[in-house]
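Complex 473.
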Amino acid sequence: MMAEQRTLWTSSEAALATSGEAASDWSASGVSIDTRTLQKGDLFVALHGPNFDGHNFIDEALAKGAVAALVDRQVTTEKALRVDDTMSGLEALGRASRARSAASIIAVTGSVGKTGSKEALKLVLSEQGETYASAGSQNNHWGVPLSLSRMSGQAEFGIFEIGMNHPGEINPLSRMVRPNVALITTVEAVHSEFFDTDEAIADAKAEIFAGLTPGGAAVLNRDNRHFLRLYAAARAKGIDRIIGFGTWDEADFRLLDAVSDNGGTIIRANLGGALLTYRLAIAGHHWVVNSLGVLAAVAAAGGNVSDAAEFLGDMEAPTGRGRFHLIHTGAGEVTLIDESYNASPVSMRAAIEVLAQTVPSGQGRRIAVLGEMLELGSGAAQIHANLAEVLVREGIDLVFTAGRDMAYLSDALPPAMRGGHANNTGLLLPMVVEALSAGDVIVVKGSAGSKTGIIVEALLGLDAHSKRTVNGD
Ligand SMILES: Nc1ncnc2c1ncn2[C@@H]1O[C@H](COP(=O)(O)OP(=O)(O)OP(=O)(O)O)[C@@H](O)[C@H]1O
Ligand SMILES: [Mg+2]
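Predicted structure with magnesium ion bound:
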C-alpha cells in the first residue's frame, strides 16, 4: 500500500519560515538532504558538506521526484526556494515546524541508549496518538533540524534524539526542539575523546535543560553516579518536575524485580505509585533500566503508562543493538546476538552480561567476537585491556578480537580464552566461522567504524533461513 502523501510544507509556508523566495508554487510531503535516500515529493535541501555541495545534486534530486530545492545560489530551475544560507534555512524550517506543533515533545539524550529509548517511545506512543520520531541516530547539528522539519503539524507526540561529541553542542539543539520532557538515559565515558572528566560529560548532557518549555519535566537515571549533578543542574534551570528512574529505592519509576525470560525480561515495577508487571522482549539489565526511563517519559509527556508498558512487550532490539538470531550452520544451530551497530566501554559490558545470561545448548560455548571501541582518546589501550577482567568474571569461554587496540585485550586474556586475533574483521571472519560448533552463543560487537557488521552478515549468510528468537518465535 502506498504511504499517504500529506503536505508537509507548501512553498509559501516554507518561504515564510526561511525568509526565502520561492520561484514557483509547490507542496512537499517530506524533506531530504541526500539524493540517495530522497523520496518523491520531498523538498531537497542543498547543504554545503565537508566533501560535497548539495547544489551539484539538484538535477538528480529533481529527476528523482523532489518538488523543489532549497538553495543559496543562483540556479536555473524554477523549482527553487532561495535563502541566504541553506543550513540556516533548514534550521528555520525546523523551528517553524516546532512553532506550529501542538505535540507533546520528548528530547532524548545520554551516553548510550538514546536510539533504543527513542524507538521504544515511538512504539508505545504510536498506540496513543499520532507520533513522530527522528530517524536513526539523526541527533546532530543537521540531524536535529532535519528531523524537526519533517514532523507533521498533526503529530500529538514528537520524539527527538539529541547527541554530542563536544561541550556546547546540545544547548542550541535543545533550544530548537523546545522539549516538554527531557530524558537523559545515562552518563558514561562514551564519545569521551573531547572531555577531560566524566563530570564534564554530565554537564554537557545537562545542556538539554536549556530548551525545556516552562513547566517541563526532566527524566533522570537515579542509578547513575551523576544523578545528583544532573538534578542540581535541572533545579538551577528552575525545573521542578524531576522524575528519577532505576533500581534505587528513591526512584519514582523503580524496579522491584526482574526475571530473565527467553531472550527477554519479566519486570515488576513501581511506576510513579502504580504497581505493574510487564515483559520486555530484549535481554539485559541495561534495557530494564532504559524501559523504566521510557515509561517515566511517557508519564511526563501525558501518555498512559500501563498501556505503554503492555506495548513494550512488542519491542524488538533495534538493528545491531542486541537482536537475537538463531542460525543453522553446517556445524549445527548457533545463537547470534547482533551488537554490531556500535560499542563503547559501557555498552561492551552490557553486551558481555547478556552473553553471560544466555544459556548455550548442549556442549555449546559462550563466544565474544569483538571489534575496536573508537573515540576513546589516550586511554584507549588500557580501556580495551580492562575488558579481560569482565570477560573472565562473566565466564565467557572464547574471545575473538580485531583491530590494533583489541590486541591489548587479546594479550590480557588467559591463553585458553583466546580464540584468535586479526588486524581487521575481514581477516578475523574465517577464524570465527572455523571455530563455530553446535549450541554456541556468539555476540558480535564493535564500534561502527570497526566493521563488525560484516561478521554478522557473513554469519547470517551461513543460513538463508535464519530466524529471530526474540519474542520466542
Ligand atoms: N543503559 C545502557 N547501558 C549500557 N549500554 C546500553 C544502554 N542502553 C543501550 N545500550 C547499548 O549501547 C549501544 C548503543 O545503543 P543506542 O544506539 O540505543 O545508543 P545511542 O545513545 O543512540 O548511541 P549513538 O550515540 O551511537 O547514537 C547498544 O549496544 C545498546 O545495546
Ligand atoms: Mg543513536
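The CA atoms of residues 300 and 322 lie 27 Å apart.
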